[in-house]
TrEMBL record:
This is N-carbamoyl-L-amino-acid hydrolase. Residues 7-168 form the Oxo-4-hydroxy-4-carboxy-5-ureidoimidazoline decarboxylase domain. Pfam families: M20_dimer, OHCU_decarbox, Peptidase_M20. The keyword Manganese applies. It comes from Inhella inkyongensis.
């Protein structure tokens, strides 16, 4: 099939061909076909999503219940649809060991009793090749603990993914670029400081191995120049057809948090690589060349210098950072020296200073990044356009009261309970942030030093993370939270200390560059979804010297990030590559 067939064939014929996309529920495809013509296959999938989203809860539940259990009675009796038979077979469910089969039957029963509908999982997975039986069982066990409302929506999301995979086969959809991005991410994740988790911190052996691998891939993709610079950034340049034209800069980071995911940062590097690979294969060069920077550090996991790699490019690298020590008392200067980047701090500083970019040589900076949140996944959208990167204020603090006997100290004004004050602060942060547009506030750390079960806490340490996409809102959030902290402590007879640890301004997307991302998304047949970025990114540092804008890619598993469950599908990665190519060619 092709798009012309989809747009012009009789509905009855199309229903015969496509009615099985959604298990025993052709009404979804029928409703979507009423919205023809479609600009792309992605637009048709979006129409199907909207039909199901408008359906009654009863109709949605019936769709879920139309799906068979995994390795259930229908499979044993060979009563599955052809599509389900193929999918369960690809995942190896038709070849379960007796122990695996017994586990799946137990899970099917427990899930049905808890939720009242069958467990739904796109067993072909994000790449389409099929999840392993162990992956299926671990996902089953994890989701069994979910909230019913969430699990209901997750089943619907999995159903859409199943339909997407079925549709791709009917249309012979070319996903080569997205599959390459997915494969690269898997291969890069082989390098880690931990055997059982993905951890890549600055200038560790795993980090340096990633740099070498990225440099080799960039050369294979067709970049004209590739180098690993004085800070470990991997920089590739693909020349444009006009040597005098300024470059487009793109990139993201390849370091990770501890026990992190495969796509945070890395997705933006790999999407640009796949785009260059495609252009090189076609012998095509846009007018403006591309500089891709795989930033060596963004997460501040080994040393506390955040954005140290991007800071050098904008001329904001702080010399004192070289003296910062990691948990083993190794300084940054020593770590760079061990990696072959200069023998002395003075020489290192000279090399780092030479990394500063001249804004006149660049058009702007764009970054592709996994969303790291649930918004796009919940909305059924593969791509989102970032309107602004949140600015933030961060603090660590301590509330001080009076430790006393938990049994003999009466309740009321006589108690000086520091933990109770911190608990009140948590609720005030939640209340204040909820009332301000697009603001978020979090107390991520709470600690009672030397706490005991029978002692009223005399001290409580806490953190504050306050963010908003506009500085005025961020500052108002800070002012109201600190006012609330003052009032809480005054009323309870306590005092506190507060130490700022980070203050960074918001980075609004440049209107022209945001519009370019929006035009690319529209060209793909998708609705434009504008959203702020709650997380920080290299783009907010490059924002200091260049106009910038970001494209978000949907994360699976409800958008979870900084977590091994972080994932994207090959379909969504393909769309990201196509959007990047559209933007670059439009310059």
């Amino acid at each position: 099939m092709d798009l012309k067939t989809l747009n012009q064939s009789e509905p009855a014929a199309l229903l015969t061909e496509l009615g099985g996309l959604y298990e025993h529920s052709p009404w979804i495809v029928e409703g979507a076909l009423a919205q023809r013509p479609f600009a792309s296959l992605a637009a048709f999938k979006r129409a199907c999503f909207e039909v199901l989203a408008r359906a009654t809860p009863e109709a949605q539940r019936a769709l879920i219940c139309a799906h068979p259990e995994l390795a259930g009675k229908a499979m044993v009796a060979q009563q599955l649809t052809a599509e389900s038979t193929d999918e369960q077979s690809r995942a190896g469910l038709t070849h379960c060991s007796p122990e695996e089969f017994a586990t799946l039957q137990r899970l099917n029963t427990a899930y049905g009793q808890r939720f009242g509908w069958p467990f739904i999982l796109a067993v072909r997975g994000p790449r389409g090749l099929g999840l392993s039986r162990s992956e299926i069982i671990s996902t089953f066990e994890r989701r069994l603990d979910g909230h019913p409302d969430f699990e209901f929506q997750e089943c619907l999301r999995q159903i859409h993914r199943i339909a997407e995979l079925r549709l791709a086969e009917k249309f012979g959809e070319d996903l080569s670029a997205g599959e390459q991005v997915w494969d690269w991410a898997e291969q890069l994740a082989v390098h880690s400081e931990a055997d059982d988790a993905l951890t890549v911190t600055y200038m560790s052996p795993a980090h340096r191995a990633c740099a070498r691998k990225l440099a080799g891939w960039m050369q294979s993709c067709g970049f004209d120049e590739v180098q690993i610079d004085a800070l470990g950034n991997v920089v590739g340049r693909y020349f444009g057809s006009d040597p005098s034209a300024p470059l487009l800069m793109t990139g993201s980071h390849y370091d990770t948090v501890r026990n992190g995911g495969r796509y945070d940062g890395r997705l933006g590097i790999l999407v640009a690589m796949a785009t260059v690979q495609g252009m090189k294969a076609l012998g095509h060069r846009p007018r403006h060349g591309l500089e891709l920077v795989a930033f060596a550090e963004e997460e501040a996991q080994r040393f506390p210098a955040t954005f140290l790699a991007a800071s050098a490019l904008v001329g904001r690298f702080e010399p004192q950072w070289l003296a910062q020590q990691d948990a083993q008392s190794v300084t940054m200067a020593e770590a760079l020296q061990a990696a072959g980047h200069g023998a002395q701090p003075s020489a290192q500083l000279d090399s780092i200073a030479a990394l500063q970019r001249d804004p006149k040589q660049y058009l702007g900076f764009v970054e592709v990044h996994i969303e790291q949140g649930p918004v796009l996944d919940a909305a059924g959208l593969p791509l989102g356009v970032v309107s602004s990167i949140n600015g933030s204020h961060r603090y660590t603090g301590e509330i001080v009261g009076q430790a006393s006997h938990a049994g003999t100290t009466p309740m009321g004004a006589g108690r000086r309970d520091a933990a109770a004050a911190a608990a009140e602060l948590v609720l005030q942060v939640e209340r204040i942030a909820t009332q301000l547009p697009e603001a978020v506030g979090t107390v991520g750390m709470l600690e009672v030093p030397g706490g005991s079960i029978n002692v009223v806490p005399g001290r409580c340490r806490f953190s504050l993370d306050l963010r908003a996409p506009r500085d005025a809102v961020r500052d108002r959030l800070r002012d109201e939270v600190l006012h609330a902290l003052d009032a809480i402590c005054e009323r309870r007879g306590l005092h506190y200390s507060l130490r700022p640890t980070l203050s960074i301004d918001a980075a609004p997307s440049h209107p022209d560059w945001q519009a370019r991302w929006e035009a690319a998304v529209q060209r793909l047949g998708l609705p434009v979804h504008r959203m702020p970025s709650g997380a920080g990114h290299d783009a907010m540092k490059m924002h200091e010297i260049l106009p910038q804008a970001m494209l978000f890619v949907r994360g699976g598993n409800a958008g979870i990030s900084h977590n091994p469950l972080e994932t994207v599908s090959a379909h969504d990665a393909q769309l990201a590559v196509e959007a990047f190519e559209i933007l670059w060619n439009s310059l």
